[in-house]
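Dear U.,

Please find below the material for section 3 of the report. The protein was modelled together with flavin-adenine dinucleotide; I have listed the sequence and SMILES used, followed by the predicted complex structure.
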Amino acid sequence: MLDRPATGRSMDAETFAAFKDQIRRFVRERLVPAEPEVMELGQLPDWVLAEMREMGLFGLTVPTEYGGLGLSLTEYIETITEIAWAAPAFRAVLSINTGMICTALRNAGTDEQKREWLPKLAAGAIGAFGLTEPDSGSDSAGLRTRAAKDGDHYVLNGTKRYITNGPIADMVLVMARTSAENLPKNAHVSAFLVPTDTPGLTRAKPDKKMGQVGALTGDIVLEDVRVPASALLGGEEGRGFKTAMMALDTGRFSVGSSAIGYSRRILESALRYATERKAFGETIANFQLIQAMLADSKVELYAAESMLADALRRAEDGLPFSTEASCVKLFATEACGRIADRAVQIYGGAGYMAEYEVERFYRDVRVYRIYEGTTQIQQLVIAKNMLREFAAQG
Ligand SMILES: Cc1cc2nc3c(=O)[nH]c(=O)nc-3n(C[C@H](O)[C@H](O)[C@H](O)COP(=O)(O)OP(=O)(O)OC[C@H]3O[C@@H](n4cnc5c(N)ncnc54)[C@H](O)[C@@H]3O)c2cc1C
């Protein structure tokens, strides 16, 4: 059983460079031109999903023996950074499969569960990760969804909130409490693999959000949802919280790298506009105050890229990387917010208009600082780890 993401390259550097090049072309030639259609429809068009499936994007991290591409952690994150150049909806639909669910299955799933789910996920079945609830978000160990044992079944009751892919998912990994005993809050959280066509499971209409159009979120309501005991991830109660937290470490790299990929796009947009727009008889890129904004954004982007590369190296070397994953998530997403803000400023009045792309970028990036652990939660994780290490030094 793995207890860390897959490390070690899955292909030689040259093959991976060619693969990345293919992804980059797909992103620029197919996904970016599809953005207006996504904005219009409010979801990804079927032809886009079909092409993403055909390219194997839903199975990036699924081991090859289960029909996936078997990318290592670094290869996966580098691929996500490329995909994140396009609107966040494209990454959102596949990253729950490739990040959260696949990590959870690889780390904690039984052989039977892997055989059942990994080929379906690699082929493009859409997964959702059900942790957050109406009364527990940052305090995820406070979740209330119950899974009561009933013979060789469990009966699930509860509501999951803001669940990415909730409205369209084929399966959801549900975190639920398997005992009400007065034990530490997370000691009885278990994870269940639940097909969304199970009777009693309903999916609410997609939430209306500030940005990230096409990345659908919504409630998943569980009312006496009966699942066989074989749906319990790993076949063991009480491991769900640990599994969720480990999946979140990978998720933090994924959100951090998404912020980096989108920051690159935003900065390029700002550069293009600055070299085209004229004021006082010259292009605004000639003004040193505009140059200062461009330079500050470049510095922050480079710092985020370097931090990500260093953290991934640690993970690949088998070193603990929880602190570093949180540093990347915190810094890259906060920097992305500032980079988008400066881009709006460089665009001037046009930056406030929906006709131009930076207004959308500005709204899209706001949530990077909220999901997969808010900035404040990353601060708490980092400080807790620092204090623990300091105490251990005596
Ligand atoms: C678009 C979107 C997609 C999402 N997708 C998913 C998904 O697929 N699956 C899923 O399970 N969840 C998902 N979420 C939920 C997301 O992970 C939570 O919204 C997030 O963790 C914050 O929880 P909350 O909304 O309950 O905020 P709260 O926990 O109520 O936090 C409110 C504020 O208090 C701060 N705060 C909380 N506790 C502390 C503390 N101890 N110290 C200091 N400050 C604190 C927070 O940082 C925040 O500023 C999604 C959310 C969004 C917006």
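For the text of the report, you could mention the following: The pocket of flavin-adenine dinucleotide is lined by residues 129-132, 137-138, 162-164, 217, 367, 370-371, 374, 376-377, 380 (CB under 6 Å).

Regards,
Y.
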